[in-house]
Amino acid sequence: MKVFEKAPAKINLSLDVLYKREDGFHEVEMVMTMVDLADRIEMQELPRDTIIISSQAGYIPLDEKNLAFQAARLIKERYEVKQGVYIHLDKKIPVAAGLAGGSSDAAATLRGLNRLWKLGIGTSELQRLGAELGSDVPFCVTGGTAVARGRGEVLEPIESPPQCWVVLAKPPINVSTAEVYGKLRAAEIKRHPSTKQVIEAIRYKRFDDLCGELGNVLEEVTLDLYPEVRQLKEVMTRLGAEGVLMSGSGPTVFGLVSKESKVARVYNGLRGFCKDVYAVRLLTQ
Ligand code: ATP
User: For the GHMP kinase C-terminal domain, which residue ranges apply (predicted)?
Assistant: First the structure.
């Protein structure tokens, strides 16, 4: 038996940090949605009790550090599954990019193994399992568009944003999420995005308002550490993207573009600037 799952990339339309909690995590408020750039995960049952991961991407761990491995191990342990699984990750989402590629792979593995082994686990339980693997995993279990609070695991689904093109560009640098959060001084954040205004713009499908309200407090840290990300934002804006923001802790920058006629200009202009550029649609429901 074999199953397949798509694991789409997420972007943050807003990312706010309210304060640092006593447990060391940051209390966040984020609006997240998914784009049509996805890894493809193949899961094949193995008779013996083992988890094997493979991938064409040479630069991700294939052992227990891989989030898909951790998802498979968790579900096997929790539901006492004796069979093993071979998991192939066809990676399309750039790694360590701020697009939650690993988290989405983990979520897709939970969904896929639930089907493969006919475990009948409900969505909220899958999300609870996901929260044990990482803060973005519960959102990736369902996808769609949601406001995430807590450390990212408290989810409120909302409507889809107005459909548009999303041009993504990842400069060739690796950004550590832990380092960015470590350098953030929550009490000294200069400008907080308005989550409420972002939600309103989405609810009333006001594309221009949404572009104007995009905001990510982690930009303060990453743009200072990596001036090329700031430059990338400027280039994308100059090329005509209507709303431009860094996703997650970066370094990927995305630009929202309303008209198909403008997408090629933004895409081609960025290709002269960095290698990893994608023009995709939002995954609206
Ligand atoms: P986040 O914003 O959630 O930190 P990200 O999009 O910045 O995620 P990922 O692509 O998830 O970053 O990769 C972060 C790290 O996780 C990488 O350095 C990689 O070694 C490790 N990793 C573990 N499993 C995976 C996976 N299935 N795909 C990609 N990276 C993985």
Answer: 202-275
- Tell me the pLDDT band of 174, cut-offs 50, 70 and 90: confident
Quick check: 285 pLDDT over 80? no
**101 annotated ligand-binding residue:** yes
DSSP H/E element including 130: helix 123-133
Whether residue 136 has its Cβ less than 6 Å from ligand 1: yes
Which atom in ligand 1 lies closest to the alpha carbon of residue 105?
27
Residue nearest to atom 27 of ligand 1 (CA): 102
The tens digit of pLDDT for each residue in 1-37 reads 999 999 999 999 999 999 999 999 999 999 999 999 9
Please give the distance, rounded to the nearest whole angstrom, from the Cα atom of residue 174 to the centre of ligand 1. 11
138 lines ligand 1 (CB under 6 A): no
Domain, as residue range, for 100: 2-158
Q: How far apart are CA 7 and CA 41, in angstroms?
A: 7
196 is catalytic: no
Interface predicted TM-score of the whole assembly (ipTM), two decimals:
0.94
Could you tell me if the CB of 101 is within 6 A of ligand 1?
yes
Task: Give me the CATH number covering residue 238.
Answer: 3.30.70.890
Structure pTM? 0.96
Residue 118 is a catalytic residue: no
Same domain, 126 and 46: yes
Could you tell me the two tokens for 249?
């802790």
First to last CA, the chain: 29
